Amino acid sequence: MTALDMNGMLGDVGVGGVVGFITGFALKKLVKLAMALIGAYILSLFWLQQKGVITINTDKLFNLAGSVTSQITTLGEKVIGLLPGTGAFVAGFYLGFHKG
Q1: DSSP 8-class letter at 52
Q2: Which of 51, 68, 98, 100 is the most exposed place for a label (fewest CB within 10 A)?
Q3: pTM above 0.70, yes or no
Q4: Residue 53, Cα to own-chain centre: how many angstroms?
């Protein structure tokens, strides 16, 4: 029988949890910033449309936003699939995203 290396396992779990927390925290901050910038941009476009400077095809604009959202979700799933499937990383990511 082989003995389990508990110190190595605890180290891997700790590192995975810390990296997951930092990743989740940073991602949420980045998403908040990106959403604020995108919102300001879209509001400025609608303001320019109201003033008669530009014309916006709102159907295409909202379809574009929906397709970008689905692409980001698919990319996120691929990234999670590439990472080692440790529960510590996922738990740390969740906590970091929740705290961010």
Answers
A1: T
A2: 51
A3: no
A4: 34
Q: How far apart are CA 32 and CA 17, in angstroms?
A: 23
User: What element of type H or E holds 60?
Assistant: helix 58-82
Q: Which two tokens stand for residue 70?
A: 């689905």
Question: Using CA atoms, how far apart are residues 73 and 81, in angstroms rounded to an integer?
Answer: 12
Task: Reduce the DSSP state of residue 36 to 3 states and report it.
Answer: helix
DSSP conformation class of 94: H
CB 90 within 8 Å of CB 23? no
Task: Tell me which residue has tokens 């910038």.
Answer: 37
